[in-house]
Amino acid sequence: MHESPPRRRYRSIFISDVHLGTRGCRSDFLVDFLKRVECERLYLVGDIVDGWRLRKSWYWDSDHDEVIRLVLRMARHDTEVVYIPGNHDELFRDWLGLEVAGVRLVREAVHEAADGRRFLVIHGDEFDGVIRYAKVLAHLGDWAYDWALVLNRWFNAARRRFGYPYWSLSQWLKRQVKEAVKAIDRFETALATEAKRRGMDGVICGHIHHAEMRDVHGVRYMNDGDWVESCTALVEHADGRFELVDWVQENRLSFARTPRRAPAPATAA
């Protein structure tokens, strides 16, 4: 009988940009991750549920349900769960200050690491000029991004047939666009500058679907990535050391052999 690998124990875990409610969401990978980890604190750093997409059409499969179930189970079993809504799940910003089923909703948080360093935890859309000043443009960008993810699904379906592991075509395409690279750099600089202004040692954010961990202007910038393209999480070890976990990269062979389960039928909203 095949034994399950032991659970990984972390002090803190940060995940964002899951986009439950979209076909591009890799909820199957996230379910696998959540089943194999334990932590004292779980930060949900925005865009966990995609309200923009669900308002247009309804899509929800069994893995989406399982993500919610696992998070709530963690909240019931001594994990402090903090939810910081983003722009795609901004409807939950009306609930800030409340605790729902053990999940505390806040606009932002200050995380103190085991080594005493203090980090601003924020989704980051407030520092995205497109989101902040031109929401119509943001929605148009969201439409183009959705098409890139459709192409990504077809591409990876073909790769699975030939026994190749998951690889994000959409993320690769984004990195080839010079203006996208410049926008990411501006975003990182803006977040790091804000953290420095507040006297923090660093910032932990999401929003741009680009996992990163580097020093910017003397502060530590850390982005936990997403569960649409990169399938990454930021974790803190018991000694205060941070690490980006790439769940697909760590499980390339098993994910190549295991096809994604067929989703439940979608119904129009």
TrEMBL record:
GO terms for biological process: lipid A biosynthetic process. Keywords: Cell inner membrane, Cell membrane, Manganese, Membrane, Metal-binding. Residues 12-210 form the Calcineurin-like phosphoesterase domain. InterPro entries: Calcineurin-like_PHP, LpxH-like, Metallo-depent_PP-like. The keyword Transferase does not apply. GO terms for molecular function: metal ion binding; UDP-2,3-diacylglucosamine hydrolase activity. Pfam families: Metallophos (PF00149). GO terms for cellular component: membrane. PANTHER family: BLL8164 PROTEIN, UDP-2,3-DIACYLGLUCOSAMINE HYDROLASE-RELATED. This is UDP-2,3-diacylglucosamine diphosphatase.
